[in-house]
Amino acid sequence: MPEPPSLIEIVCRPLEEVDVDDRYLAWFRDPDVVRFLESRDLERAEVIAFLNAGRGKQRFIDAICMSPSGLHIGNVKIDVNWKHSTADLSILIGDKAHWGKGIASMAVRLMTEKAFLRLGIRKLTAGIYAVNLGSLRCFERAGWRLDSIQRDHLLFEGRAVDRVVMSAFNSGAWVTGAPAQWAGSR
Length: 186
Ligand SMILES: CC(C)(COP(=O)(O)OP(=O)(O)OC[C@H]1O[C@@H](n2cnc3c(N)ncnc32)[C@H](O)[C@@H]1OP(=O)(O)O)[C@@H](O)C(=O)NCCC(=O)NCCS
Prior knowledge:
There is one protein chain. The protein is α+β, with helices and mostly antiparallel strands. It has one domain: 3-Layer(aba) Sandwich (Aminopeptidase), CATH 3.40.630.30. The protein contains six helices and seven strands; from the N terminus they run E-H-H-H-E-E-E-H-E-H-E-E-H. It has helices at residues 22-27, 31-34, 44-52, 103-118, 133-141, 180-183; strands at 9-14, 59-67, 72-81, 86-93, 123-129, 145-156, 159-169. The chain has a seven-stranded mixed beta sheet with strand order 1-2-3-4-5-7-6, covered by helices on one side. Strand 2 and strand 3 form a beta hairpin. The radius of gyration is 17 Å and the shape is globular. Coenzyme A (COA) binds at residues 33, 36-37, 90-93, 99-105, 126, 128, 132-135, 137-138, 141.
């Protein structure tokens, strides 16, 4: 009988200061990784400051780790706007050996679930360079849909390109947003 396919498993857990090591900083110096990102060449101190700004209140950053090894390969983050009960999600698989295996789609799904079920967020969005086809496909695979297109909104390699906004709606959303006591919980 043929062997069943080996399943890739990931775990997402809160990113900690100790995760910001040389390997982590190297992701932000890799031209392929930062090609469609706004951040690059980061110093440890600025990453730590960013990590701690609004942590567990407006900003939730999870480390994406392989299971069972625990190897940290990327991050998925949401920045919440509690007034509107919305959040903006961004994703990064820094370890390129793990690209193209469906891992980012899985991580987007997990963070979507966390935002909807645990934080009560009403709507999630992600702004993507129209030329970042891998990212667009990853959100589509995670069940997100096209929300809107901001024409020629971003400058990329010497030309203006569209910013595609993908979104996901929480069908069971709280009309008035998450209860205050959930805002600080993880
Ligand atoms: C974009 C990124 C998150 C995708 O991660 P990933 O784990 O490779 O994504 P997935 O495997 O879940 O899904 C990618 C999908 O896009 C496809 N894809 C990847 N590169 C592609 C390309 N250049 N053109 C077309 N499709 C592409 C893959 O084949 C896959 O689709 P499929 O499963 O239907 O074959 C990862 O490449 C990354 O972190 N890049 C650097 C940071 C970045 O750009 N982040 C996004 C900012 S919005």
